[in-house]
Amino acid sequence: MHARRFRFALIPLVATLSFAAIAQQSDSVRTIHGGDGITLPAPPVTARHAVTDDYFGTQIVDNYRWLEDAHSAATQAYLKAQIAYTDAYLRQARVRPRIAQDLDGLVHMTQWTIPIQRGDEYYLMRRAAREQQASIFVQHGWPPVNMLPKLERLISPSQISSDPNTSVSLLNVSRDGRLLIYGVRQGGADEEEIRFYDIHTKRDLPDRLPPARYFSVGFNANHSRVIYSRYAATGTLVFEHALVKQSSPASASTAVAQDTLLFGQKFHGETLGQLDLINARVTQDGHYLTITIERGVPARRVDILYRDLRKDNAPFVQLVWGIDSRFRVLYDRDHWYVQTDYKAPKGRILEARPGTMPDAWTTVVPEGQDVIDDASIVGHRLFVHSLHDVNPRTGIYALTGQSLGDLKYNGIGTSSGLFGDSGARYGFYSFQSMIQPPTIYRFDTKTGKQDVFFEPDTPFDSSKFTVRQVFYTSKDGTRVPMFIAGRKDLPMDGSRRLLMTAYGGFNISETPEWNAQWAEWMNLGGWFAVPSLRGGGEYGESWHEQGMFQRKQNVFNDFFAAAEYLIANKYTTPARFAISGRSNGGLLMGAAMTERPDLFGAIWCGYPLLDMLRYQHFLIGRFWTTEYGSSENKPDFAWLLKYSPYQNVHSGTHYPSIMFFTGASDTRVDPLHARKMAALMQASSGSDRPILLHYGLKGGHSAGVSSDQLVQDYADSLAFLWTETGKH
Length: 728
Description:
Blueprint: H1 19-25, E1 31-33, E2 39-41, E3 51-55, E4 58-62, H2 73-90, H3 96-107, E5 111-112, E6 116-118, E7 121-127, E8 135-140, E9 150-155, H4 157-160, E10 166-173, E11 179-186, E12 192-198, E13 203-212, E14 214-219, E15 225-232, E16 235-242, E17 260-263, E18 266-267, E19 270-271, E20 276-282, E21 288-295, E22 301-308, E23 317-320, E24 327-332, E25 335-340, E26 348-352, E27 362-365, E28 371-378, E29 381-388, E30 391-398, E31 403-406, E32 414-415, E33 426-433, E34 436-444, E35 450-454, E36 465-473, E37 479-487, E38 498-501, H5 516-524, E39 527-531, H6 541-545, H7 553-568, E40 577-582, H8 584-595, E41 602-606, H9 625-628, H10 634-643, E42 657-663, H11 672-684, E43 691-696, H12 707-724
Parallel strand pairs: 38-39, 38-40, 40-41, 41-42, 42-43
Antiparallel strand pairs: 1-2, 3-4, 5-7, 6-7, 7-8, 8-9, 10-11, 11-12, 12-13, 14-15, 15-16, 16-17, 18-19, 20-21, 21-22, 22-23, 24-25, 25-26, 26-27, 28-29, 29-30, 30-31, 32-33, 33-34, 34-35, 36-37, 37-39
Helix pairs in contact: 3-5, 3-12, 5-12
């Protein structure tokens, strides 16, 4: 999810804008003072062109509406000046070379993904230590002890493009192990092109699906066709594409325009809308095509249908329809199961019987005290992944509900849950923590034996660090968990820097995960903290709902209470307190800088949502109205206006040091938010602290940029946060 940019990937001619030229464009002769002796002139002057909107009788003025047009000459000139201004700061950051050198080792580690097993072959993504991107490999067989596995590289992004920011992703492998589906992505964009690879001939098929947002891509039962779901302007559509044989010429590939529409316009008298996201999957035995319709992001309602592929032109049959709860389908040997929060906010597992309502279904795993986070069927057994105070637990059950024990985890961390085929003997999972990169394990469902499939070799000495969990009280009395990591010998006297990151939205649980930049922060001698805010899924749907719509302020209050706890317990002080967040977490950073600028010394605000009155008009912003609401509705406008960062910047306020970080390839959250907010904050801040816009061409919301670029982006970000929480 972390998409980044190289510092040298700038808008053309940026290098021609000298530091002296920046000073001449500044609005005054005042000096900006960063940490560690860094000085800058005032930021470049940004023109104001007032546009006034009327919201239900309330007049809202926007002086930087013109910056919403990314391609105008004026916006390009603005970006050119901002990038040069930011680079002028980074050239003075004396700690940056050390950080970049350390990150070079932490980022350039060999990495593997959880494999897809087909017989004795294991298909996976692997990136060697000095490679820019991961390639698609196959491991032939399971190696004996002390023997290296036989790895074969199948697809390398360097064979596709000389651009190091071109990446590939492994999407699917046919049951017979003959064909492979993979995606090709440019930079950090969400869209990817879909390609097909013949594993025996080691060549691509001529068929390709054009760049788009695909929610699922898989084979039919005999692998002659591909069934995929793709987002369109009117909503998600499900198509079937006939594959040509490898021996056919490229010109004989089936045109996408000829693909058969299977689903996505109307069903059961209901027109499916733009906010309905659809996944299409074929069961592992090839018997059924399942359709899952998620209503909104995150889904407030999930419908599930299926079609019997053994019968010609069989109709879609409802498994679940029209219930305002979330369902996730599981399947094994003609039996249907669902993970759901229907009448169970923390989740349960039911065996479903088509043609009846969920109230009549059999409970396999009842709702408990812990929220069910995920579930899978491997080896004809049910693996239920739950969170106990945000710590992972995976219970093993017979499909009749009998408990068969648990997967064992080592300490505080994050587990992926078990992946594998419903009838396979082996499943795979990963485990990681703030101080330990992901290790991949193979689990034998018959014997319970766990073997290491891949363990990274890292320069980070985990034995010198510790992770702890604490609980604190938010403004309204809510008990909130938080993970804190750092060196074992760090004093708690307020003398140390601390970096805190959080998310708080979309039912996404924040668990203790590995990240090279957080590891480097701890290497430098700082504390690192992650609170599990409301709006996430750590305690089920009720926890999520407490951070939605008009209750969004709870998320911010939880975050501020976490900061106050850390300061009161002498982990750090406000001047030495850095915070970081991206996307919805970038909105959190916007609220932190506008509501509590006194609490923090430096803020990194990445790929952010900031203008909450207009976000729904750009890219896929309308998807998120099911989480935030929309200013087009009068009640929603009232609560959005109260916290929307862009509308709550006040001239003369002493704001902390801020870096807005985004990229032109972000096709999810429009970079206009960062462009406008940086201009407004630079013009409004009454302090002499730096307000920077870090803007690149390749960076975006999705992963995909090169490892070298990742090092540079992490170094820029950490150098800023470390410098700005030092001496001034």
